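Working notes for the structural subgroup meeting. M.R. asked for a predicted model of this chain before we commit to crystallization trials. I am recording the input and output together here so anyone reviewing the notebook later can reproduce the run.

Input as submitted:
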Amino acid sequence: MRRPVLTLILLASLTFLVGLGRQAITDADEAFYAEAAREMVASGDWLTPHFNYERRWEKPVLYYWLTSAAFLITGPSEASSRLGSALSGIALTLLTYFIALRGRANERGAWLAAAIVASCFGYFAEARMALPDLPLACFITLTIWAALRAAESDAMQWWIVTGLAAGFGFLTKGPVAIVLPAIVVVPIWWYERRRITIRFSGVAAAVVVAAVVGLPWYIAMWRVHGIEYLRVFFLENNVQRFATEEYNGARPLWFYVPIVLGGLLPWTAYVIVFTAGHGTRSQDDALAAPSTDWQFVVWLLMPLLFYTASIGKQPRYILPILPPLAILLAHGITRCISRRDRAASRSLAIATWTTIGIFVAAAALLARAQALFINTYATLTWVSIAGLVIAALVLAAIAIRGSWSKLPIALACASAIFLLAVQFGALAGRRPDAVEQMAALVRSNRQGNERVAEYRVFVRNLVFYLGFKQQELFDLAQAQAFLQSSDRVLLVASRQDVAALQQSSATPLRVLGEVRYANTANLRLRDVLAPDPEKNVETVSLVTNR
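Returned structure, recorded in token form:
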């Protein structure tokens, strides 16, 4: 195996796999997939996904299957529930490397593009969550690349790969796995129509393979559950999600701009500098942009425009644009390094010193907000801060000396340190987590088969640690009605909500136990800049009506 591939596997394993199971299942969407996979193994029903012991038709089955298979080997755990996402991140890293090489980048540029994918915050965050979005991005990327290779080479094996990737993508999240590759590939095919030949036999082979892989599960679901399943999945969870405010409110046209910039951290400054045109213009034709750069621009823009036009915008949707963006960014950086002129050095210096500022700011924020990180070890937080400072000093030494040839490897290593500092310095560490502590409280205080409900805390993730059905309450009236039951019931709610319920309840509520809970997913920059443990760290109570 070639050294660049080995180093990329090592880098991606470091950012995507280390500490994969250290953080509890706390994200509400992540809980859907982890718990549904656990119930799939427990019930033996590998056709119909269930969450909280009720049918879940919102998403296709492939990620559930992958996670359930991991559970069969290792047992239900946080790490095994996220393994499919983490491995998809590694696969995307290697895909980006080979795509960049095929796009006429030199080996250094291809390695840098893949390293950006392996060490950007967007992929890092998604790889550590039990969600199908990163596997979907992997299948979409492979579909686009294979389709372009198939048209160029007219080789049947590439058409088959196209069909396989599209079929698995369709089985991961539905029609979007077909739509996104189509809106990228078709314009490129049309523009290149004089140079390439699209044979009907090749396209037909891809369609047949995609259908054989992607359709049988949908057909089985239709036969078992009828036309209602097809209506719920394709109409409600695809068309309505895209075109209406059914699932979230309308967001502005520029919604994805900060999402993309934040997802590329800590590489963001280089994107801004090269997008502005600094240092990307060359008088040397030998160093001009590779002839395939325009294809990567199309690959980047079409999905971005597609999702910008939608009503139901979500940050995770644009994950497929990061590989072409990383390739274009790597081209810009390596061209500047190769030019060795004053303009290129100035551009690299601006971007690098800005990045150094990002590292220093991250270290300062970790130090300032320590009081909010109640699930981490203070020692790990300070080690993370030290790592960020050392990385900043290394980058500063390169910028001062102008040793730009060392920048790619230094940036990749510094970015890995940045991501792991966020993970272990702020997000993960102490176990059991608050949700696990609450699950233990529920189990120790439950007498028989009393109903258990949660109200506005531990949304959808408590059931993974309880292992039995719970009820989710959405407003104060529902919570009041639940507590007025003639039977003994248990309710999980914040201390403030318990106080409000106590005021309106004719029956005194009895507090059985409490845990402290810091929901880091809800932290905003203002919370980190002005940390207030009284505001950002909740006390969650377990109460009963008897």
